[in-house]
Amino acid sequence: MGIEFRDVGKTYPDGTVAVTGFSCSIPSHRTLALVGTSGSGKTTLMRMVNRMVEPTTGTVLIDDRDVHELEKVALRRSIGYVPQAGGLLPHRRVVDNVATVPVLTGTTRRAARTAALQLLELVGLDPALGKRYPAQLSGGQQQRVAVARALAADPNVLLMDEPFGAVDPIVRRDLQDQLVQLQAELGKTIVLVTHDIDEAFKLGDQVVILRTGGIVAQTGTPQEILAAPADDFVRDFVGIGRAERSLQTVDVDGRNIVVDGSGRPVGVLT
Amino acid sequence: MNLFGEALRWIGDGSHWGGPGGIDTRIVQHLWVTFAAVGIAAVLAIPLGVLIGHTGRGRLVVVALAGAVRAVPTLGLLTLLGLAIGIGVEAPLLALVALAFPSLLAGAYAGIEAADPGAVDAARAVGMSEWQVVTRVEVPLGASVLIGGIRAATLQVVATATLAAYISDTGLGRYLFSGLKSRDYAQMLAGALLVAALALLLDLLMAALQRASSPTQGKVPS
């Protein structure tokens, strides 16, 4: 059960190799974080799940069913999708953006709007914003709307393409915290793409670090990766040598204070 | 200035209104030819332009072809068509369709291509069919550019529709041709003024329509 990539590869007609021989699986209700620099094929891999990209080799399975055998449009409607930088429809009100998929699948507009207002609340927005157009919201608010839209059809699977990449660091942390909280409540199977290793460690149960060409550098839980980085590339990518990753404790008046590699205090060991 | 006054008096003369050759009848004819030509061209060019804009395919071929059509002088085409299919409104109508076609085509594909690629991709990814992507996202987002194409085509056609009178008894162009023949320059100028006024009026209407179709125009909440 869950999502499984079985030896998938993608080579574009012009010969560009985006992904080669990628295998990985994530059980239901868990989050898979695909992390890597640009050109590592992470977005390509994620888009194979809802067939926005067709692999040239291998198969992708959701709950043991090959997605290639499912009808594209129906498959996509059954999967929540949060694109980079919102991707909201600029000519529709926020509430109608959220209601997009339920309306497509035949829910009446009125019922879909009522549900959409509740979803806005769920993602931490004032339902009164539903009347606005996307351009009248901040970047962070637009991203929340995009998450609400992805949840509208109550999908089991969520795909998130660098969902918080375009907002400032404070808003990003806020959105990440909210996602952690939502996930604890909803238990979706999530495939998250990011270039931010801290985001991958924060949100991912399973993290895949990719290098150029979609080659897996290491797969594991955040703990496993930090404890035993596979090679120099991973060590460098997660910043093992960086000051903020090499913590130690010092005794100050009988309390254990945690300091980073450059001696700055980061917290108290309890 | 004297001629100008005469032309205005000619338009104001009640005997030039009503009846089969009256100004009102000619205006209706002129509009009819204009709308028919733009309408026929739109039915052909807009779906083609939308298809090109949506798929990104066949753009070079069709654009080159439309450019070539644009280079054809309408009067020359009208003469050729008139010789081929004879006197009547059909030949000028066809020539005007050819005139309107490139602007409509360009407006359609440019409008579709102008739609925010992020919104289009997301619409597809959340499960809109290709048809729904076109009708619910690309066309509404490109509407103002698309209507800009209709506006340009309408302006060209309403001005050039004077040529319909070259080989048929249709439209305001009649006053220019008969005025030229009988050296009635007041009548000629009157015809030209009427065409210009009609063109301005249509353009203003289309401009208002174009503004109203802008995706976020007038949608600021209270």
Automatic annotation (TrEMBL), chain A:
Residues 3-238 form the ABC transporter domain. It comes from the Bacteria. Keywords: ATP-binding, Nucleotide-binding, Transport. Its EC number is 7.6.2.9. InterPro entries: AAA+_ATPase, ABC_osmolyte_uptake_ATP-bind, ABC_transporter-like_ATP-bd, ABC_transporter-like_CS, P-loop_NTPase. It holds the Pfam family ABC_tran. The keyword Nucleotide-binding applies. GO terms for molecular function: ABC-type quaternary ammonium compound transporting activity; ATP binding; ATP hydrolysis activity. This is ABC-type quaternary amine transporter. It comes from Nocardioides simplex.
Automatic annotation (TrEMBL), chain B:
It comes from the Bacteria. It is a multi-pass membrane protein. Coiled coil: none annotated. Keywords: Membrane, Transmembrane, Transmembrane helix, Transport. CDD domains: TM_PBP2. It is found in: Cell membrane; Membrane. The lineage of its organism: Bacteria, Bacillati, Actinomycetota, Actinomycetes, Propionibacteriales. One of its GO terms (biological process) is transmembrane transport. One of its GO terms (cellular component) is plasma membrane. InterPro entries: ABC_transp_perm/SBD, MetI-like, MetI-like_sf. Belongs to the binding-protein-dependent transport system permease family. The keyword Transport applies. This is ABC transporter permease subunit. The chain crosses the membrane at residues 31-53, 60-87, 93-112, 145-168, 188-209. The keyword Lipid biosynthesis does not apply. Residues 27-206 form the ABC transmembrane type-1 domain.
